[in-house]
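Appendix B. Chain record.
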Amino acid sequence: MTAANHSHGSNAHAFPRSDRSSIGVWWWTVDRWMLGVVGLLIAIGVIMSFASSPAAAGRMNIGDPFHFAVRQCVFAAGAVVILISTSMLDVKGTRRAAFFIWAAAIAVMIALPFLGHNAKGATRWLEFGGFTFQPSEFMKPALVILVAWMFAEGQKGQGVPGVSIAFALYALSVGLLLIQPDVGQTVLITVAFGAAFWMAGVPMSWVMLLGATALTGLGSTYFLFPHVQSRVDRFFSPDKADTHQVDAAAVAQAAGGLFGRGPGEGVMKRHVPDLHTDFIASVGAEEYGLVFLLLVISLFAFVVIRGLQRAMKLSDPFEQVAAAALFVLVGQQAIINLAVNLDLIPTKGMTLPFISYGGSSMLAMGLTLGLALALTRRRPGAYAANEGLAKAGEFA
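Structure tokens predicted for this chain:
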């Protein structure tokens, strides 16, 4: 009787350990804690979309108040499908997927100046069937994996000019981003590229040179792009510019206090155009208080710190660098969005991963973390130096 109960208890998981189907093997090798936290972030994004987007729909004279919220539910479902299916890939599959995704995204980005949809002075989107598609969102994680692959190949000393190829891929990607122009994504990619460069064990003098070049390049965007100049000027001289959105975000956060006004009780979302996208954190802070902001920050911190810990324990240099750089990408985007909401940096037009409204962002984040989960799954030899740790069922 006791043995039977014990046997039943051990199979209480969704799949028994003896299940050798692809989904059964996936379930026992993937980081289920990470899956749960990402699922929670996606759920928060859907809830916040229902809270913030009816006001946006009303402002745009869209008949259905839940137009954006319903679409966000569809995007969320798509992100979950992409996340799970890509996290099932093996290492070779992640490299192959990254190559094809990067090539397709670059092809679309090359076509954008001729076919793209212009909004707010930038041509970053392809419009079809009532949806807008932003190829650079999908290019980012693919580029990170390709760059890590090239660094790893270059280190093998078998004549592959890995570092040169990595820089060429980065230069092409950034060049096409600056044509749009999209300085925010350029900064994201540059930091992730620099992180991969550093983690690949490149001499510190090279890392310093890359850092100095990146800072010079970032500084030059102030003089090259009028919209960057106006955002920086507005940040440093708020009395001389229209800072309506940032001011409204600050008022919303202050009005929320510790526990918020209550679900649906926020008022600032009725007056600010981008509160359902770039400033979604401020809507949450007004309705659910400082507690909401701290929860969101904690969830992102969990994803990034746990992801980096797992990545650093991988024994293969490519898997280690690629996975770590993907987690850096996610964390960096969250930090930039939250810093804009808190008026710590100039506005960037960057979404809060999984929470801001937006199809391309939601689906691409599903892809990014799906690839990261695929690389950090437990496989024979993947955590060779920490085999005992892996056997201890750390993901249980």
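Further analysis of this model is presented in Appendix C.
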